[in-house]
Prior knowledge:
The structure is a single chain. Helices cover 83% and strands 0% of the residues. By secondary structure, the chain is mostly helical. It has a single domain (5-83), classed as Up-down Bundle (Methane Monooxygenase Hydroxylase, Chain G, domain 1). α1 (5-41) packs antiparallel against α2 (46-62) and α2 runs antiparallel to α3 (68-83). The radius of gyration is 17 Å and the shape is elongated. The termini are far apart. The model has no long low-confidence stretch (mean pLDDT 95).
Amino acid sequence: MPNIKSAKKRVKVIATKTEQNKMIxxxxxxxxxxxxxxxxNNDANKAEAxxxxxxxxxxxxxxxIMHKNKAARMKSSLATKANA
Length: 84
């Protein structure tokens, strides 16, 4: 355990940020999964689902929760599947 006041604060801040990042990642995974399901089932709102998933991927990349190349790869994969 840290003894210095600033180190104690860093532990708290890191724990808070970790929780926020986990929530964003979880939400992202759920959204992408729903988009793939919409594509698979050929739903009427599949374009909307893909658009929302793309937005979430961009937001996660902007916040450095995922690498920008991974985000680009995910978006590309999603778009390819949607257009097929």
